[in-house]
Amino acid sequence: MKYGTHQDWPINQLFILLATSMVVLVILRYASPLLVPFLIAVAIAIVLSPLFEYLETKHIPKIISLILVSAIPLTLFVLLAAYVGQEVHDFVANVGNLKSEFTASMESFSRRLAKLGIVVTQAQWESILHRVDLSGLVEGLASRAGNQFSNLFLIFFTAAFILMESDRFAAKLQKIMADRGQNTDEIMAFVGKVKSYFLLKVKTSLLTGLWVLVVLWFYDIPYFVLWATLAFFLNFIPVIGSILAAIPPIVVAFLDQSLVTALWVGGWYLVINTVIGNVLEPSIMGKGLGMSALVIFLSMTFWGWVFGPAGMILSVPLTMGLQFLFSRYDETRWIALVLSDYKGPVGKAPAAVND
Hints:
- With 355 residues, this protein is an all-alpha fold.
- Helices cover 79% and strands 0% of the residues.
- It has a domain at 34-164.
């Protein structure tokens, strides 16, 4: 995208933009029960599109390709959800035993601290345990996931129809742009960028989940499938997702086994997040998303407030869409520049910034 010459913008237009944005924000917030399943369906369709296109190149009828692409992931997801749901139920039921083990460990640890002149009462340890409410955290995540699971078949049916209409949508878009005397290069480049982001996150999240699964299985951490699944989904959340995914298994490792095991598990999580988040993803993604780290973090917070956990997962592509939309108009091009990762010299306005 190119940012042209500066043009003064009357203050009344700024207030109109702010007022319109507030109205749209309220609409999005109240329409989230309808919009979130559709956005998830679009994301699933983007992820499944390469497999769908591959089957079509093998001259498999479109309806057969659609059934294969939709039915197999849906079946696997249902089986995984059933197993993970049982693990969530067992974990919540077993929290009392973990708390008892934690109390016993802390009593022994308190006696060692007392010998060093540090006094920590049992009430203080129990207060800490009460604040770290793992069962509440897991139950809350499971409840929110269950709300979307109830829409699972609707989501996959919507994704299937999106895949079926994908080629027609591209043709319609080209016709609309041609009638307006414009080309579709920029739009198709944006769509390709969003598609590449989703495919990259699916691959790296799957690698993260499998790596976590192996590590937790090796150290015999209870509910390792649950924690690996949590790592897979939370890896889609930028900045803090991988950190949040590491907290429950580290705490469980400490409560169920020992501090040394918890440190080993924490160390492995650090290695996994460093290799995948700081080495693998940037090297594959190339020059990046075109957004600053601050914007990515704030967008995660904003879209999470609007759409809940699904908004946090989809925050990056949603913000990329806003950035692209703002860059298309002279009046809002400065907003696209604010959202970008532009690093030009301070005190000198950029003549042009290419996305």
